[in-house]
Write a structure and sequence with these properties.
about 475 residues; globular; TIM Barrel; eight-stranded parallel β-barrel; alpha/beta; three-stranded mixed beta sheet
Length: about 475
């Protein structure tokens, strides 16, 4: 073979190898996420009350449900597993009720314990991403009508100042609110989550200058966020502040549903970030899948493959959500004031994951969503990190313990024993190598397709809304939901 031919062949083989490898920048980070309400034991919160009242499925039929994952008394178990996984960022929260059981009063022992937990994370060379409000609030604020009450603004700001002042040297990233719009929707509007108010679906509608309860609550949250942002940046400018915002891929299956999907896209994907976009160091994005709209509500479509928790699997929707958010807040800067075109808001994927007891779907789901993320980066979208939900099977709000989101399975009948699923080692490998190959993609998809027609658990009723105490079983459809 001539030298020139050998060089050409080498170049072709090199380019093919490069094209078959998806890699992430050296400063891109990987993480894991959890929440106090999911993981902490010895927590007498609104969720435990709600469960005792029968508001939580797959709870009373579980072993030691109130102990959750013992993250309060034995946090080192989870933290050591996270260290073994290799993540650079550990996302967790503090519980407002635990720290402030009565208005204006602070539990010093609780503040000290949270400090010890944060030190455990830092000592294992992981950065801390701390969430202040993650789908829970004190009983005393809930009884005072929660975020419908404007007094909640100052109460939450004062709590947040106390937390940040206490842990400023330990916090790398701060999240004020996790999925603010979903919390208001599921508490104040739909009554699916703990609430003291009657549901008012009409409050979702805004008529000109008249704002419904949904918008009023978000406005109160936005004011609180802005006050916290101003305070923290003035005292601790090194802390990066954002939100963890749920963004779904809303789709309609007929004309009416398509209109409803567009309204949902605006109300749930844009409204809250629009209010605070000038007070963000980054926009955290939680993405799980598509929401299929029929009429005015969500439904289960026979043309989609679903996670156990009822989210339609749609990595292409992930790319679309990232593209549309970037266009809204960076490319066109529609909602940003006094910002130079080059001064963009970076994104962090603060949650992405799938409920999958079998672990048949999770490897392909993980890889396809990271592939979509990489495609977004190649389009010029600034995405700084990816945080997976979650490390261990846990309590999933009103769904209880039925959906299994963990890279580690948890045996509740055997002292919460953790066992790594294959996806644990896959994510570990991705983190170590800062990427993966096309062979990894092909193998994960091949493994999933080998289970076509086999039954697997599903924790949502066929109406798409109600959770189940015990999962029903549905077959793997074998649909091709990969991103093209």
């Amino acid at each position: 073979m001539k030298l020139s031919s050998a060089i050409i062949l080498f170049a072709l083989l090199y380019n093919m190898s490069f094209a078959n490898t998806i890699s992430f920048p050296p400063d891109f980070f990987f993480g894991i996420a959890t929440a106090p309400g999911h993981a902490e034991d010895q927590l007498d919160d609104i969720w435990l009350d709600f469960a005792k009242e029968g508001g939580v499925k797959a709870f009373h039929n579980q072993a030691i449900p109130e102990q959750r994952l013992r993250f309060w008394t034995q946090p080192e178990i989870e933290i050591d597993w996270a260290k073994e996984l290799g993540v650079q960022v550990y996302r967790l929260g503090v519980d407002w009720q635990r720290i402030s059981p009565q208005e204006g009063a602070y539990d010093q022992a609780a503040l000290k314990r949270y400090g010890q937990i944060l030190d455990m994370i830092k000592s294992r060379n992981m950065k801390v991403m701390l969430t202040l409000f993650h789908h829970s609030e004190p009983k005393w604020t809930l009884n005072a009508q929660s975020w419908t009450n404007p007094q909640m603004i100052n109460q939450f700001v004062e709590f947040s100042k106390k937390v940040v002042d206490q842990y400023a040297d330990k916090i790398d990233y701060l999240i004020t609110f996790n999925e603010a719009q979903l919390y208001i929707l599921l508490t104040q509007m739909d009554n699916f989550w703990p609430t003291t108010t009657k549901p008012r679906p009409s409050g979702l509608l805004d008529l000109g200058p008249i704002k419904g309860r949904f918008s009023k609550c978000l406005l109160n949250m936005a004011q609180a966020h802005k006050a916290i942002y101003k305070y923290v940046k003035s005292k601790y400018p090194q802390i990066q502040i954002g939100i963890a915002h749920n963004a779904a891929h809303y789709q309609g299956e007929n004309l009416v549903a398509k209109i409803s999907a567009q309204i949902s896209y605006k109300r749930f994907n844009y409204l809250f970030p629009d209010m605070i976009i000038n007070e963000l160091d980054y926009l955290g994005i939680n993405y799980y899948g598509a929401e299929l709209i029929k009429g005015l509500g969500v439904h289960i479509s026979l043309q989609q493959e679903y996670s156990e928790s009822g989210r339609a699997i749609a990595p292409s929707g992930f790319l679309e959500v990232l593209t549309r958010l970037n266009e809204r807040y960076n490319t066109k800067n529609k909602k940003r004031k006094n910002k130079k075109e080059s001064n963009t808001i970076p994104f962090i994927i603060t949650e992405n994951g799938i409920a999958d007891t079998t672990d048949w779907y999770r490897p392909a789901y993980l890889l396809e969503h990271l592939k979509a993320l990489k495609m977004a980066q190649e389009q010029g979208i600034d995405i700084r990190g990816y945080i997976f939900w979650t490390l261990s099977d846990n309590w999933e709000w009103a769904d209880g313990y039925c959906p299994k989101f963990g890279l580690l399975s948890v045996d509740r009948d055997n002292d919460l024993k953790r066992t790594p699923r294959p996806s644990f080692y896959l994510y570990q490998k991705i983190i170590k190598e800062k990427g993966f190959s096309s062979e990894d993609l092909e193998q994960a998809w091949k493994d999933l397709q080998s289970h076509k027609g086999e039954d697997r658990p599903f924790c949502r009723s066929r109406n798409g809304k109600d959770a189940l105490d015990e999962p029903m079983f549905i077959p793997v459809k074998g649909l091709d939901w990969r991103i093209k």
